[in-house]
Amino acid sequence: MLKNNLSRYFPAVLSGTALVFAFPTFNISMLAWICIVPFLISLYRMDGYTAFRAGLFFGLPYFFGTQSWIYYSVNHYGGISLLPSLLIVLLLSLYESLYTALFGFLFAKAVKRTDLPLTIIAAPLWGSLEYIRGYLFSGFPWSLLGYTQYKSLPIIQISDITGVYGVSFLIILVNASLADLYLLKVRQKEKPLFPKWKTLASSAVTVMVIAATLFYGIHKLSSVGTETGDTRNVRISIIQGSIEQDRKWNPAYQRNVFNTYKRLTTEALKEGPDMVVWPETALPFYFGMDNDRTEELTEFVKKSGVPLLTGTVMVKTRPVNKDPDVNSNNGYTLSNSAVLIDRAGNPTYFYDKIHLVPFGEYVPLKNTLFFLDKLVEGIGDYTPGKNYAKGNLSWGKFGTIICYEAIFPGLVRKFFRHGGNLIVNITNDAWFGRTNGPYQHFSMSIFRAVENRKPLVRAANTGISGFIDAKGRVLRTTGLFKETYITEDILINDDTSFYTRYGDVFSFLNIIFTVLFFVKLSNKAGKTKKYQGGVT
Fold first, then answer.
1. φ/ψ of residue 423, rounded to 5
2. For residue 220, is it within any domain?
3. What are the GO cellular component annotations (predicted)?
4. Is position 448 within any domain?
5. Of residues 374, 403, 454, 471, which has the active-site annotation?
6. Is 316 a catalytic residue?
7. Is 280 designated active site?
8. Which among 109, 220, 248, 353 is annotated as catalytic?
9. Which of 96, 130, 280, 451 is catalytic?
10. What's the whole-model pTM score?
11. 488 is known as an active-site residue
């Protein structure tokens, strides 16, 4: 029995494990196009519930392997020991594996009841579930298949129409086509009248879709940034303070932290930037509440004559007649924010982070889950922002996304529906340590640039900071945990992509197709049962 179970689920485990190596930091991106084939083939001979379990066995190594960095955050900064930290990652992976388990269940059911090619079943189904995973229960669209291709520029240009989900669709399409060809003789043997031409036609269509995607990508790589004719260069300096997480808010180090950013900025100013960007929560004080340090900062910017965008914790409301101890979080309302200080030293733009990190920046359903606290130490619970505000300078407009927000395609596009020129991502990836987390986080930013056809500037406290153009090309980056600054001229434009205008139309079509397909399949099965039961 044990031997049978091992052999039955081995293809799923093999596929899920191999898929990990397609993501950063291994970056064997070609694996993604073939490694899911064993899993799909194994589902063919399974009943629905066995396929559900196979989906779990596929998802567990896939998600645990790509998200193992989470243990570092909760272990090092949440005060949770190693084994419970790993258990938290395992539980999250188990939850995410429910999506691949549901995929296995529905896929196996569909294959038994239709002679359609596997591509028609697998690609829309996977695309639908991947999209839903990005929104349900706050959403966590990490480890999306499409992210394995962040270096494959001709392939990912299609994201300006479909979002990253379209690249995931293509990957499953190819895997399903290969599985289809492998199973062709098996299906013909079991069903002598099985229409071979459908499988061959589906494979031909897959080849044409990939060819069309590559053609589109090559065309876009040669044309993006020139379509409106209104392009211009802007010079940006990124300051990477590389401040250790346990020192950021330690009163003994606050002066040193502040001076580090001022010193690096003074050096960067020699390169003549149009704007300087500091990372998420770079300020070791509460902007606007600590009057002395706030004035020191605005005077520094005024003297430099160059606008500064920086991350800061803002005190939105404060209790009356209370001891001003913000860290106690007793009656204070805080936000994880960005502030732009213009060349005259005036704060002219504020943005409050909209999509907060559950169990990191707030506890969801706090009244119900009263027994849970945040998994990492912080200042307090943050209040989410509501406005997709853009900063405005003489050279153009920019939207600011803070840390975790960069993994949500639908959120980022909302900044640019009515125009804009630049995406600025400020983040603090010190939480990830020297794991695969910072590399994966950076790779997702490449897709946000391509989806919206906007260059992206990424300022990270400990790295990876960098510049990405509107085609997804990485122009320059920093190393991890290095105190440094970088300056780059980037080309901004007034283009608006299809994805920016209309959002996840492709994903919605996937969902509609999938629902209609399985409704029809269910009705067909119901009629067959009635017929077999003698009902006319």
1. -100, 125
2. yes
3. plasma membrane
4. yes
5. 403
6. no
7. yes
8. 353
9. 280
10. 0.92
11. no
